[in-house]
Amino acid sequence: MLEIKNLHVEVGGQKILKGLNLNINDGEVHAIMGPNGAGKSTLSYAICGKPGYEITEGSVTFKGKNFLELEASERAGEGVFLGFQYPVEIPGVSNINFLRAAINSVRKYRNEGELAAGDFLKLIRSKAAELEMDPEMLKRAVNVGFSGGEKKRNEMVQMSMLDPIFAVLDETDSGLDIDALRIVADGINRMRCPEKSILVITHYQRLLDYVVPDFVHVLANGKIVKSGDKSLAIRLEKEGYAGLGIEENVA
Amino acid sequence: MTAKNHLEGLKFKAQFDLWGNSLPRSELDWVVKLRHESMAKFLQFGLPGPKVEAWKYTNLGQLNSGNYELITSADNVVNETGLLENLKGSKVIFTDGFYNKASSTIESQNGVKLLSLNDYLKDFPEAAQKILNKNDDDSSLQSLNTALMTGGYVLFVDKNTTLTAPIQILHNTTTSSENKSIATKCFIDVQENSFAQIVEIFIGADEQNYWRHHVTEAIVSENAVLEIYQIQEEGKKAIHTADTHVDVGQRANFKHYSLNLGGKISRTEIKPTLKGLQANVDLRGAFLGRNGNAHDVFTHMKHLCPEGTSDQIYRGVLDKGGKSSFQGKVYVAKDAQLTNADQSNKNLILDRNAEANSKPELLIYADDVKCSHGATVGELDADALYYLKSRGLDQNAATALLVEAFVSEVYEEIKLEPLRSKYLELALNWLSKEHKK
Fold first, then answer.
1. Which of A192, B56, B329, B422 has its CA 20 to 30 A from that of B16?
2. Which run of H or of E encompasses A232?
């Protein structure tokens, strides 16, 4: 599904990713862990086309397409979803209008007609209920005045509505209490199926108790330095990065 | 003698000398006399030039150099261009500044008197003289308006009367408006415990070059409510100046909403005087400009009595070649203790080649008041833009959603649903026009 080769990324002239390779096949869940400043968020933004993240070398191929040529919105149209570490507050735009605009934009990209208003409302109500979101929050401005947990839950509702085939979740678990963590994990697990893949970026092993990954990678110094199965995450939690011989935050 | 930094405005004098006696109601001596006195008063000052502080951002030089002719009559043909659908109530239409009887419908209601200015001058000369001779013009443009007025309306709402529906006033133009100055004047008097809403639309063709000058004088008495909703969609070459003066009485409420979209130059002046205890004024507006539009909103809030509240929210969106200014003056008299006056003007710049000016001016002579003001000029939030794009919205759709949100704040409290949607629809159309370019 996703093939990243020798990826080099600079942000504001600073080299962050320095030759990263990653292969994710259909149906796989990969977890990326790593110390602060390793380039975890940079990787997620580079995959999802954030302006200011300059690819100086390497390639990102999604479903056989050169992903680096596409705008962020086109990448979403291709079926990629980015769960933000810090979801953005957008005053004046209601959650429900935002979601309607998003869904219809993605449908337009795929040459599908707009979703009828009634069908849209049915869909969003059922998704909100599944993820235990108060329907009143749909009327509120996107993320404005939401708690950390509510924002992350909102990310899950958006993901569920947009129904991506590949999701990058950038520290979706940070700042969550145990109930919110369970809901987020539940949202991720709902997506798991043989056709869809997930990349979970996390600081803590905790989320991986709920979302069991097929592969775990350690990202340090702009490269993947170690890969393994879920036991790698458990070892990391016990022994720390130093225990695995990984230097923290060289920059 | 022209006042300092003013332009002579002699071409208006020449036009007046030629056609003044053909203006409406020239059979009434007192009207003719009033027009001449007002013209003399105008000439004492002239047109405000760009060096006059309040006119720093709006250059009326074109009015002085251009030879704007007077319109002395208009065809009474049906012309409803620009009328809002889905709004019940009386509809009063002015075409090229003249009352268009054939297109208007006036619904009668007990306690409500709505008539054209020229009928009022003829049928109620004493009352009309009293109002017109109040002589408290605070600008030379107002005097010029009195000298040249061709039409307008007068609305009286008696005590304890609630208008059953908003009154819609439409000002449109025909090809006869080419190179003309159009002066309209209206009076609104809402008596104690009464309620009135007025929707006022200005519309014109892009081909014609005209100056529309519209003056509204209003009184809102004790415990009464007056709401004015303006939509300005003048033609591309037009100059539009609209002045509203309003006296707000004890516990009375005045609300003014505006949306400025059209015109080469637009100037919206709103001057409320809070004359009674606990008077309240809310001013809301947006101006959207590009390709040579210059919008200027000038407000002067005068708090004369204690415990008054005023709140102003203005939003500007400027795209390539657009220019705007907001000047918000708040005066709090020594006796107006416990005044609460807020003001906010935010501007969004969508292109490097756009200009927004914002100038709050607070003159506070009372010592126990709460006054706030805020002004910002900025670009779209890059993080918000990326967040929307990551969800599939392309650049145009994401921009439109953010600009709509920015503007909608101004209109969200409007309870007249067809009107609130109209404001938002117009703002969205403005945006999508740009995207087609």
1. B56
2. helix A230-243
